[in-house]
Amino acid sequence: YAGKRRAGQLFLPVHGDTPQETAKSYSEVISALCDGTPRIDIGCFSAGGGKYSDAGPDDPGHIAGVPHGQAHLYAQMASPYVVVSDMPKPPDVRVTMSPVLIKTTATMFLFCLGENKRNALENIIREQSPIECPSALIHKIEGEGFLFTDMKVEN
To answer: What is the mean pLDDT of residues 108-133?
Structure first.
């Protein structure tokens, strides 16, 4: 499958002819690396936020390519990597970590930098549902989470 690449964006090699085959392959690889139980020991993530485009809606705080409003991604417990589609920015079909895999993180460093991500920061602090603000998964991980920001936060 072909996707649009943005300058400076890292892509893992494609392991299949379709996104579904690639997600399955990635899931098998991480399962094998983790003795059958996929997990993340240390995860460094950046919270999404701001606007998807100049005239577009706010991004309430995506993480690892997991978009908001796709509740079905949280039910895919057997698959560490999932296919997401209808993304607001190219490519519109992607393979990403599932929320279930992200929740296994033993130590998470979540960066929410830049005033344009204030809406995401506020959603994270309010512990909004991860379905509506995937970056709020920091509150649901198995281990410890550390949130870094350059914005002033009210107590």
So the answer is: 94
